[in-house]
Structures are given as structure tokens and as C-alpha cells.
Design a protein that fits this description.
heterodimer, A: 413 residues, alpha+beta, 2 domains, 5-stranded mixed sheet, 15 helices, 43% helix, globular, B: 423 residues, Cytochrome Bc1 Complex, Chain A, domain 1, 6-stranded mixed sheet
């Protein structure tokens, strides 16, 4: 149970505070309700580019990292298709410095061309390092446009094409910034050795003067139901073939999310799961076989990802995966499997509570979903999943016509 | 209110560790209390790293096989038993040590420790699982062969330690084929013993775990603990200069400059940490500001001074587009020369000092974090007061001392200059 309090400032900034007495540190986590799904298809990668620009300083703070370091803090950020998240963890007596910095860069970013050009180049190198210079690095770049035809989840956070970043100008960026970076589009979560009263007072001091923004709500095109199997084959210089299969699911707020989260744990969450046991050990088709949820807020994907053993035919391998998952629709998982998944959930939840920063993000994320209290009621969601629900969800999801497949094959020598 | 708040100079707080206790057979146990959740983290560390192996890959393979079958349970049932408890069993195998980190709900401790004893002391190394694991490891190895960063790393250790040394040996696909379960059984018999280990327990009321550990790790016939005997090593460093390794089709190159460094017992070791951080150890470091923030050549560039058993290393590494690699080498040299010519500013030292104080505070933020910090101290006999001394070194660091350390340890005429990438 994470005990927290919530307060909304006049300008719409939602503030959540959790008092953790077991640490001398505090985390200030600020989540912006802006991800790559909010981008114009002709200008993608902006949400992530902002994650870089936010560290570039303002007229008040020329180098963002310096005050953070002076205060003994560490900070980082990440961008997903749904959101952009920034955090600073530092000794709790320096919390005010973190809030000052966040408030300053919420509205005061310097978006002049000079600041921009180096970060555009850094992001281009990031793209090369993470997606092009890694074996199998482009697999997920291929998957999105295959699985999505309409919804902006069809591009990854890095963008559809790196040329969008190269072409970004300060006018376009200014519009994105003004629209999404403001108090009414953000959630501030403070977790650590600071009382909620103190946290709220400091938040009011540091953010209260900022004007509320105008953005309220988004209208994204819904992805139409997929009605036939999709398949692509690519050849790359890799040592072994890889099979990816993605099925459309409901979104993060649905009951189905919890059912599938538990199910994917039963299938591949641990060494005794069905995939390691059957596909890897017993049939020896794969050297690794995983299945996981993309976890996005709008309807997302459940993704099978498996590295084939040498000499195995990829279509045979795919059949074996389909056989495993078809079995889920015809016979219920066992009580022992469910029990194991629940126990593992309980340990993982507690482990994630070891860090105040994890708690800060979880609170902010659940507030984005609609209620920070979800962080506590979620356990009940997981614990109440039944074998029958798993069977029903499996028959709905794991249909060939709902599946996008990538055959990622080694180049023939 | 738009003015900057006053910054309070961070203090690392108490950076000492509790005294070691011992099981009745002498196995050292360190208890790290004050957890706030009903979880325990138990780590078993054996003197069984890469350093101890006669046969290439034996150390990491032995460690990975621990949960692949025991004398009483096959792989499927041992994994099922572990997974039912909800506990995490994380294998750890590095250059010097190997072992297991177990995180469990406190109420499952007895059951989980009995499984830990079973996998640590009674693994069976079955052939089928061994063959599958070897195939999987070979595939990962072949995948890594295409990463410029991995090729540059192995080239650096080879240049630093020599290829006849367990740290510098270059692994080939044939090594995977040559390894046998007999090699692993022998390695296990020699090194996975109570007389070659220590244990840390972190969480809420770790003292309650002692009687459980006593039962599983100090029983009859487990042998009396003695201080581990470390092997003598011979280092044959290559001559400094450019080493190019071709990785065809790569869109980026890894640039890795490196030097022989110093070990933790050297009086300069702690000061060198500070100097290296100013050069390339944080987001706003000299190298990051120049090569990432101004030039945009890279996503990141890092400098590091570390040490393994009997040898220290210093390295600067970055991944850049092929066209930028020569320019990057020049810029790295320029930044080093600059630090040898001109003293760093007091502000820069203050920045890094506060940053390190904050890092120390995070390392001592709760028993789980402390258990990780403790590894470096015990593994390298660094002394229980290591971090207290480090905080003092950092507080008293001067611009003159930084310049002296950079001049002494970052000699650009004497560097390994490794480039892995397309021709």
C-alpha cells in the first residue's frame, strides 16, 4: 500500500505526494501527457526530441545538470508512445532545487536554432546506435507500421524517419512545446522523506505562477480491427533467425490488460513457464522465447518474440507457437500456474517499492490513467484474474487474422 | 517565486558498514538491517569468476548451469519449485567472482534457502540442458561479434592483459564446442564450497535469517572457511598505439582509448576517480560537453578508471559515425591535453564533489543499495572505511592534484587507441 495525498494547483497542475520515511532522498517526478502518439505524422520524433531539449538549459539555467549535481542529485528522462517523463532524485533537503528546475524548464526552454542543431545530431546518432548498429535493432521499427495502419502507434518514439528530426525547425517545435508543456498537461509526483504538506507548499511556490495551458484532450484515430494475417520477411546480417508475432489487445485501462499480464507471465515470465519449458527445452525450436505486453494506454499489442535454433524452419516454429497459444483457448491454465504468477506478482510489486523513484513514477502514471489510487487497487485486479477469464481473452486475441508476423532471417552467405 | 533556492551541500551520511559475523564453520556473513518491506536480499559470493578458470568459459557456464538440474530435481522441477515461491534467483558471474542473488518474501525464507543450498551445492550439470545452454550462449556470442562495442572491449582487455591471461583471452566459437560438463563439474567442486564464499543479507531484520543460513550453509561436512587463495597472474601488455578491428557493415565505429591503471590499494586510486569523472564521467563532463553537446558526434562518451584483481584500467569509450572517428580521437586528445595544461576550475571540482556526495548518499540509501556497494569493498579488500576515506579524498581535492593525476595517468603518447568499425 502506498499512502499518498493529492492536490491540484489553480493552473491545473496535479501534485501527488508520498511520504517515505525510510530514505534520506526524495524523487521529483514530472510526467507530461505527451508522447509520440501526439505527433503530426509529417513531423514525428518530436516528443523524444523534447526529452533531449529539456536538458539544454534556459535563460535562467544555462546548464541544467549543474544545479542538479550541486544539489547531489541524479536525473533522467524517457519518452514512450504515450508520455514523456522526467525525474530528479536528490537529498530531500534540496527538493526545492528540483522543483525550481522543473518549473523553469516547463515554460522557459530556449528553442533557438543554435541549441537545436547539436541535439538533432545527437538524436540521429542515438537512432544509429540503438536501431541500426545493433543486431536485430530494427525489429520493432518494422513491427509498428505492420501492426498499425491508422493509429499513431504506427511509429516508434524515435520517429518514422530520422529526416523528420533533421528538418525540425524552431517554429514547429515551439508549437509542440506550447501545446504540451504546461501545468494543466502535467502531473508532478513527489516521493521521499518530505511530508505532503511541505511538498504541496513548495509546489505552489514554484509552479503556482505559471499560466495554465489550453490543451485538453486528444482525438486520435482508432485502429480498425485487423481482419487478416499480415506477414513480412526481411534479411539481415544476423547469426540466427527471429520470429515476431504481434496480436492486437485492449488498452492499459481495460480488464484485459491484467488478464494478459498474468497470462504472459504464465507463458514466459519465468524459467518454468510454458514457452521456456515447451518451445525451448522440450521441442528445441527456439533458444529464447518470450511474450509480453506493449502496455500502451490505447489498445496495444501482445508480442511474441523468439530467437530460432539453427536449422529450424520458421514456419514450423510459428506453427508450434500457435499450437501453444491455441491450447489456451481450449483448456484452462492450472491452479498451480495461476498461483505461481500471483506469487511472482507480489514479489515484483514489493521489489519495485524499494525505490522512492519507482513509487513516484507509478503514482504519476496511475494518475494519468485516471486515478493515482490505481497503484493500490491494481493488486486486487491481478489477484482476482480467473482461469476462465484467461481462456476467454485467449480465444479473442490469439486468432491468425489478428496477427502480424515478421520473419527476420539471416542473409544467405 | 522565480529565484533559485539555496542549495544545501549534500552529505553522504553514514558510509560505514556493520561488522561481519560468521556462521559456525567460519563463513563470513554481513547483515544489513533497516529495511522497510518484508523482503530479504541474500547474496552468495564465491571466489569463482573468470579469473579462476583453466578452461575458457568454465566460470560463467558453471554459474549459469546451477539452476538447470540438481541431484534431486531435474531442470523443469527445480525451476518450478523456485518460481512457486515467487523468489528471484539472479545469477552473477563476472571477471573475479560468481554467485547468486536471491530476493524473497521474508515469509518464504526457509523454503527459498533450502532451494538455494540445493542449486549452489548440489547441481547435476545434465548433458541435455548443458547442450541447450551452450547453443544459446554461442548464439549470443555470435550476435555480440557484430557489435563494435563488444569487439573494442575484448581488444582492450587483450591489449591490457595479454592473451595468455584469463582476462585477456579472446573467446572463439570453438571454445563453446570444446567445453564439457566434466569441466563444469570440476570447476564447481573446486570453487562452490562454503570455504570459498561469503554471504550478505539485506532487508528488515536480517538477523532472523542467520539460523536459517546456519542450517543450510554450515552443516556437517561443509568444511572450514579460510581466506580464498587467489591465483598468480602474468600480465603481458601490448605496446601502445592504434589497433584497428574490422566489423563489416557497421554504421558506427567504437572508439576506445585505454591505459593500464592502478588498483584500489594505490594511494592515487580514489583521486583518479575524481579526475576521470571531470574528464568524462558525468553528463556535463569535458568530453560530453565537447563531443556530444557541441559537436553532436555521439549519443554518449564515457571515461572510467576501474580495477579488477591485480590490475587497474583506464578507458574512454564512445560510439560515433564512421566519418567522425578520427575527429573524435583528435578531440579526446585535445581535451586531455587541455587538462594537462590548465587547472580545472574550483566550480568544476565543487560540482563533481557534490555529485559524488549525492551518489554516496544513494549507495547507502537502504540495505539493498548497501549490499551492492559492499561487494566492491569485500571483493577487493578495500577496507570497511573505504567510502568514508573516499568522501574525505573528494572533499579535499584540489585543481593542482587533478592536473597532476591527469598528467600521470592519461598519457596520450602511451594509449591503446582501439577502433572497431567498418574499413
Amino acid at each position: 500500500m502506498i499512502i499518498f495525498e493529492r492536490h491540484t494547483l489553480g493552473n491545473g497542475l496535479r501534485v501527488i505526494a508520498h511520504h517515505d520515511r525510510g530514505t534520506p532522498m526524495v524523487t521529483s517526478n514530472i510526467l507530461y501527457d505527451a508522447g509520440s502518439r501526439d505527433e503530426d505524422p509529417a513531423a514525428t520524433g518530436f516528443a523524444h526530441l523534447f526529452e533531449h531539449l529539456m536538458f539544454e538549459g534556459t535563460s535562467n539555467v544555462p546548464a541544467f545538470d549543474e544545479p542538479v549535481m550541486m544539489a547531489g542529485g541524479e536525473n533522467n528522462a524517457f519518452t514512450t508512445n504515450d508520455l514523456t517523463n522526467y525525474y530528479i532524485t536528490l537529498p530531500s533537503n534540496n527538493l526545492e532545487t528540483a522543483l525550481w528546475l522543473e518549473s523553469d524548464r516547463m515554460r522557459g526552454l530556449d528553442l533557438s536554432e543554435g541549441r537545436l542543431s547539436a541535439q538533432k545530431s545527437v538524436v540521429t546518432e542515438e537512432f544509429r546506435q540503438r536501431f541500426l548498429n545493433q543486431p536485430y535493432g530494427d525489429m520493432l521499427l518494422l513491427l509498428r507500421p505492420l501492426a498499425y495502419k491508422v493509429h499513431p502507434y504506427r511509429w516508434p518514439a524515435i520517429g518514422i524517419d530520422i529526416s523528420h528530426i533533421e528538418k525540425a525547425d524552431s517554429g514547429l517545435l515551439r508549437r509542440f512545446y506550447d501545446r504540451y508543456y504546461n501545468p494543466s498537461n502535467a502531473i508532478l509526483s513527489i516521493a521521499g522523506s518530505v511530508s505532503p504538506d511541505e511538498a504541496f507548499m513548495m509546489a505552489e511556490d514554484r509552479f503556482g505562477h505559471l499560466p495554465a495551458g489550453g490543451f485538453n484532450g486528444r482525438m486520435l484515430p482508432a485502429e480498425p480491427a485487423q481482419d487478416e494475417r499480415r506477414e513480412i520477411t526481411v534479411h539481415r546480417p544476423v547469426p540466427a533467425a527471429h520470429l515476431v508475432m504481434a496480436f492486437h489487445t485492449d488498452g492499459r485501462k481495460s480488464r484485459e490488460f491484467y488478464i494478459l499480464d498474468l497470462l504472459t507471465d504464465i507463458l514466459a515470465g519465468c524459467d518454468s513457464g510454458r514457452f521456456p519449458e515447451n518451445l525451448v527445452r522440450s521441442k528445441e525450436l527456439f533458444s529464447e522465447a518470450d511474450i509480453y505486453l506493449s502496455g500502451e494506454i490505447d489498445p496495444g499489442l501482445v508480442i511474441f518474440s523468439g530467437r530460432l535454433k539453427n536449422g529450424v524452419d520458421i514456419r514450423k516454429a510459428e506453427e508450434a507457437v500457435m499450437e501453444e497459444i491455441s491450447r489456451l483457448a481450449s483448456e484452462t491454465v492450472t491452479a498451480a500456474e495461476l498461483e505461481k504468477a500471483r506469487n511472482r506478482y507480489e514479489s515484483h510489486r514489493l521489489i519495485s517499492y524499494l525505490n522512492a523513484s519507482n513509487k513516484a513514477f507509478s503514482l504519476a502514471f496511475h494518475e494519468l490513467l485516471g486515478d493515482a489510487g490505481g497503484v493500490n487497487t491494481e493488486t486486487e485486479q491481478y489477484m482476482s484474474v480467473t482461469a476462465e477469464e484467461i481462456t476467454a481473452a485467449s480465444s479473442r486475441i490469439f486468432r491468425p487474422s489478428n496477427c502480424s508476423v515478421i520473419y527476420y532471417l539471416p542473409e544467405s552467405k | 517565486m522565480r529565484t533559485a533556492p539555496a542549495i544545501i551541500i549534500p552529505s553522504p551520511g553514514d558510509t560505514s558498514f556493520p561488522e561481519m559475523t560468521r556462521l559456525s564453520n567460519g563463513v563470513p556473513v554481513c547483515l544489513l538491517p533497516n529495511g522497510t518491506l518484508d523482503l530479504l536480499r541474500i547474496e552468495f559470493v564465491f571466489n569463482a569468476g573468470q579469473l579462476m578458470e583453466d578452461v575458457p568459459l568454465a566460470a560463467s557456464a558453471t554459474n549459469a548451469m546451477l539452476t538447470e538440474g540438481t541431484i534431486t530435481h531435474d531442470a523443469a522441477s527445480i525451476n518450478d519449485l523456485i518460481d512457486r515461491t515467487g523468489a528471484l534467483f539472479n545469477h552473477t558471474a563476472d571477471k573475479d567472482k560468481a554467485g547468486l542473488v536471491v530476493i524473497t518474501l521474508t515469509r518464504k525464507l526457509e523454503e527459498v534457502m533450502s532451494l538455494a543450498e540445493e542449486v549452489l551445492f548440489h547441481p547435476s550439470f545434465p548433458e541435455k540442458e548443458f547442450r541447450m545452454l551452450t547453443d544459446k550462449r554461442l548464439q549470443s556470442f555470435l550476435t555480440a561479434r557484430q557489435k563494435t562495442s563488444a569487439i573494442a572491449r575484448e581488444t582492450f582487455y587483450q591489449a591490457l592483459c595479454g592473451e595468455n591471461n584469463p582476462y585477456g583471452r579472446i573467446i572463439t566459437p570453438d571454445d563453446y564446442g570444446a567445453l564439457t560438463t566434466a569441466d563444469l563439474k570440476e570447476f564447481h567442486t573446486r570453487y562452490y564450497k562454503p570455504d570459498n564464499m561469503y554471504i550478505t543479507v539485506a532487508g528488515r531484520n536480517p538477523d532472523k535469517a542467520v539460523s536459517v543460513l546456519e542450517r543450510h550453509f554450515a552443516g556437517a561436512g561443509t568444511g572450514k572457511w579460510h581466506k580464498p587463495v587467489m591465483p598468480e597472474l602474468t600480465f603481458e601488455s601490448a605496446s601502445p598505439g592504434r589497433i584497428f578491428r574490422e566489423v563489416s557493415n557497421s554504421v558506427q565505429s567504437t572508439v576506445r582509448m585505454g591505459w593500464k591503471g592502478i588498483t584500489r590499494d594505490h594511494p592515487d586510486y580514489q583521486g583518479l576517480q575524481v579526475a576521470t569523472m571531470i574528464l568524462g564521467g558525468y553528463f556535463g563532463s569535458r568530453l560530453m560537453r565537447n563531443i556530444r553537446e557541441e559537436k553532436g558526434y555521439t549519443y554518449g562518451i564515457h571515461a572510467l578508471a576501474g580495477a579488477i584483481h591485480r590490475i587497474g584500467y583506464i578507458t574512454i569509450m564512445t560510439d560515433v559515425s564512421n566519418i567522425y572517428r578520427e575527429e573524435t580521437v583528435n578531440e579526446i586528445r585535445k581535451e586531455i591535453t587541455e587538462m594537462c595544461m590548465n587547472e580545472v576550475t574550483g566550480e568544476e571540482i565543487a560540482l563533481v564533489r557534490n555529485h559524488i556526495m549525492g551518489e554516496l548518499a544513494r549507495m547507502f540509501d537502504g540495505p539493498f543499495a548497501m549490499a551492492e556497494a559492499l561487494r566492491g569493498i569485500i571483493d577487493y579488500d578495500a577496507g570497511a572505511d573505504y567510502y568514508t576515506r573516499f568522501a574525505e579524498t573528494v572533499r579535499t581535492m584540489t585543481p593542482g592534484k587533478i592536473k597532476e593525476l591527469i598528467e600521470r595517468y592519461f598519457n596520450t603518447d602511451n594509449a591503446f587507441e582501439i577502433i572497431a568499425g567498418a574499413q
